[in-house]
Amino acid sequence: MLKIMAVNAGSSSLKFKLFMMPGEEVITEGIVERIGWDDAYYTIVVNGDKIKEVLPIKNHSVAVRRLLDDLISRGILSDLSEINGVGHRIVQGGSYFPDSVLIDEDVVQKIDELAELAPLHNPAHLTGIKAFLEALPDVPNVAVFDTSFHQTMDEETYMYALPYEWFTKYKIRKYGAHGTSHKYVAMKAAQIVGRPLEELKIVTCHLGNGASIAAVKGGKCIDTSMGLTPLEGIPMGTRSGNIDPAVVGVISEAENLTAAEVVDILNKKSGYLGVSGVSNDSRDLEAGMAKGNRRCKLALDIQSKRIADYIGSYFIQLEGIDIIVFTAGIGENSSRCRRDVLNRLKVLGVEVDEEANNKQRQIVEITTKNSKVRAFVIPTNEELMIARDTVRIARLCEK
Ligand code: AMP
Q1: Which ligand 1 atom is nearest residue 328's CA?
Q2: CB atoms within 10 A of CB 231
Q3: How far apart are CA 343 and CA 351, in angstroms?
Q4: Who's near 356: CB < 8 A, 6+ residues apart?
Q5: What angle, rounded to 10 degrees, do the helices at 122-135 and 60-73 form?
Q6: Ligand 1 midpoint to CA 163 (Å)
Q7: Å from CA of 333 to ligand 1 middle
Q8: Distance CA 224, CA 182 (A)
Q9: What residues flank ligand 1, with Cβ below 6 Å?
């Protein structure tokens, strides 16, 4: 039996999930939020109960120390040496990492170097990695990259039609994101329909506050909607998704803003929030729409339309679609979003099963027997993928 910690460190947060492998049971999970504050939140689930404390947590090292001490004091572990491996989610692996990798000095340096492509994420992940290396120096740490699954895209897909030197000098290209989630739900879909992944053409829709779509052929990603950064693709909670890039110049002139300030608005004040003026949360927009708020409906319609447009494009690229998967916060919970998207795909022979689509929070097939494309809701599990990769990459089963 192996105990594996899956970690997702953000700039002021640290999410954790401790697994028993290979059985894949969750021993405990939780999150430290507001790291750096005197009133940080530490939340841990013990025997199904959520325990929340408010306490000062100066930095990620203190957060990790607090977590490890707590695992002992609550009797979840009797000794820290019981932790066999730690897996870290890393948003940007650039072209360096087509697979997860055991963390050493060179890997740390490359994650650091790639911070220029993911300035909010990679430095935060590094603080998490350093904190665990410091606290558990003898335990293997594995980096699992959001970008790895998308490394199989062809050059014609990942290259932008821009001056070629921007690629050679600055590594400007499409990298994608949410790869761990897309890979997990594609594998799960194959398992559910009882067919080899190698035979299947799957479109995976990861629709959360951040949202992306991937085209998966024979288990390999051939295209995805996010780009150099998570800003590209479909509109999201606060991100615009695709726009005419000339908007940046026009608005920077009109509002006397720098390009960076406009891009910040495209990232943080656009999408659902920008169009509706109400919220970045689709629950609020659905409530607004029910009360007749026109801009809430418009924001939701724009997103569904763009999702359907991507699926249509992937139908061509994949030369057909066997399965569409909906996952993440909106994909798993919003029957309205799923229905709206699938109804726009009638031309592909998609037929929604209304009753099944209204079921919540479970694996469910949401198309009828006659539908030419099968659609499923499959809850994502990125942490489990991280734990699996940690076992595989650190060769823990062989030890
Ligand atoms: P995630 O980023 O995957 O955690 O997804 C978070 C988003 O899921 C929230 O911002 C909401 O927009 C959406 N969401 C969660 N629950 C529901 C629900 N019951 N109906 C519609 N959207 C939901």
Answers
A1: 3
A2: 19
A3: 7
A4: 364, 365, 366, 367
A5: 50
A6: 38
A7: 7
A8: 10
A9: 208-209, 237, 281-283, 328-330, 333-334
Catalytic residue, from 146, 340, 353, 389: name it. Answer: 146
Q: Which two tokens stand for residue 282?
A: 């689709």
Question: Which tens digit of pLDDT belongs to each residue from 39-88?
Answer: 999 999 999 999 999 999 999 999 999 999 999 999 999 999 999 999 99
**154-177 confidence digits (pLDDT tens):** 999 999 999 999 999 999 999 999
Say whether pTM exceeds 0.85: yes
Return the closest-CA partner of residue 7 out of 70, 48, 98, 68: 68
Ligand 1: which residue has its CA nearest to atom 15?
Answer: 329
Q: ∠ CA 288-293-298 to the nearest 5 degrees?
A: 95
Chain mean pLDDT for the chain: 96
**pLDDT the model gives residue 359:** 87
- Tell me the sheet residues that pair with 142: 87, 102
Contact 235, 207 (CB under 8 A): no
Distance between CA atoms of 279 and 338, rounded to whole angstroms?
Answer: 20
Residue 378 φ then ψ, to 5°: -135, 110
Domains in the chain, please, with CATH? 2-145 (3.30.420.40), 193-382 (3.30.420.40)
Confidence of residue 308 (pLDDT cuts 50, 70, 90): very high
Of 31, 236, 280, 334, the residue with max ligand 1 atoms within 8 A of its CB, to mutate for a pocket test, comes to 334
Q: Which residue has the tokens 């489990």?
A: 384
Q: What tens digit of pLDDT does each residue of 273-289 get?
A: 999 999 999 999 999 99
Instruction: Quote the pLDDT of residue 398.
Output: 62
Answer yes or no: is pLDDT of 107 > 90.
Answer: yes
Please tell me whether the peptide bond between 137 and the residue prior to it is cis, using omega within 30 degrees of 0: no
* Cβ contact 74:87 at 8 Å: no
* 309 flagged as catalytic: no
Residue 344: how many CA atoms within 13 Å on its side-chain side? 17
8 Å CB contact between 135 and 68: yes
Least Cα distance to 88 among 27, 10, 184, 1 occurs for 10
